[in-house]
Design a protein that fits this description.
Blueprint: H1 2-17, E1 20-22, E2 25-27, E3 55-63, E4 66-81, E5 84-95, E6 100-111, E7 117-126, E8 136-137, E9 144-149, E10 158-160, E11 162-163, E12 170-183, E13 186-198, E14 205-211, E15 215-223, E16 227-236
Antiparallel strand pairs: 1-2, 3-4, 3-16, 4-5, 5-6, 6-7, 7-8, 7-9, 9-11, 10-12, 12-13, 13-14, 14-15, 15-16
C-alpha cells in the first residue's frame, strides 16, 4: 500500500505544478494517462470502488421532492481509450411515479496497477430532450481523464474526477475516512466521505459516501439542490 500511496502523491504532485486559478475555485489538472500503468484486463477491485463485471447496483432517492431510481450495470463490454482498456458501466436514471427514463449513460472506468480507479469519459443522453450535453472522452477535444477513487484515500486529498473544459469539470476532496452510517438497516463503518464540486455549477455541493467492499452507498446534495440517493440493493445484470 505504501507504493500505491507514493505513486498517487507523485501523480497528484505533478498535477499541482500545472494548477491554474479561476474565481472561487482552484483548478488542478489531472496527470496524463500512461497505458503502461494499466493491465489488459477489466478488473476493478479498488476497496472503495469495486466494479465486478455483471454486478447491478440499484439506488433510490428523491430530487426536489420527486422520487428517483437508478440502475448501474457493470457490463462485460470494454472500450479502448487512449490505449487503456476501460470497463463500460451502463447507468440508467429514472424519475417520477410511474418511473420515466430521464438519462441513459455509459461511463468508462479503468484501474491502474496502483489501484487508482480512473474516469475516462461518458456517453450520455437526456430524455425527453435528447440532449447529449455532458458527454466527453479522454483524449478527444483536449479532454482529460481523472480519478473516480484513489487507491488509498487520505483526508485532504483533492483531485479532478473529469476535465473537459466547459463540459465536465467535477472535483472531489476527501473529508473523512472513518464515517459510520446506517442505511436501510445496514451498518457501515470506516466509510469514506468526499465533497464534490464543479466550476460549472459553483452553487452546488454534494457529499458522497463510499463503503469498503461495496463502493458508493449514499449521496446527499448539501447546497444548491434538494437531492438524496442511497443504495437500495446489489444484484446481477446480464449486459
Amino acid at each position: 500500500m505504501y507504493v500505491a500511496r507514493a505513486s498517487v502523491f507523485l501523480l497528484i504532485g505533478l498535477a499541482l505544478v500545472l494548477a491554474v486559478s479561476f474565481p472561487g475555485i482552484a483548478v488542478v489538472h489531472p496527470p496524463d494517462i500512461n497505458p503502461a500503468d494499466f493491465t489488459p484486463r477489466q478488473e476493478i477491485n479498488n476497496q472503495y470502488f469495486p466494479l465486478p463485471v455483471g454486478t447491478l447496483f440499484v439506488y433510490e432517492g428523491t430530487k426536489e421532492g420527486v422520487p428517483t431510481y437508478d440502475e448501474i450495470c457493470v457490463t462485460q463490454q470494454a472500450r479502448v481509450i487512449e490505449g487503456v482498456l476501460a470497463t463500460v458501466v451502463h447507468h440508467r436514471s429514472f424519475a417520477g411515479n410511474p418511473r420515466l427514463l430521464v438519462e441513459d449513460t455509459r461511463d468508462w472506468h479503468a484501474q491502474d496497477i496502483f489501484h487508482n480507479v480512473w474516469y475516462l469519459g461518458e456517453d450520455t443522453i437526456e430524455f425527453p430532450s435528447g440532449s447529449t450535453e455532458g458527454s466527453w472522452e479522454s483524449g478527444v477535444n483536449d479532454a482529460d481523464a481523472g480519478f473516480i477513487m484513489l487507491a488509498n484515500p487520505h483526508v485532504g486529498d483533492q483531485y479532478y474526477q473529469e476535465f473537459a473544459r466547459n463540459v465536465a469539470e467535477d472535483q472531489a476532496k476527501v473529508l473523512s475516512t472513518d464515517e459510520s452510517l446506517i442505511i436501510r438497516g445496514v451498518s457501515y463503518n470506516n466509510v469514506i466521505l468526499t465533497k464534490e464540486t464543479s466550476r460549472l455549477d459553483p452553487g452546488a455541493v454534494e457529499y458522497k459516501y463510499y463503503a469498503s467492499g461495496i463502493g458508493f452507498i449514499l449521496g446527499v446534495t448539501i447546497k444548491g439542490a434538494d437531492e438524496r440517493t442511497e443504495l437500495a440493493r446489489i444484484g446481477k445484470c446480464s449486459e
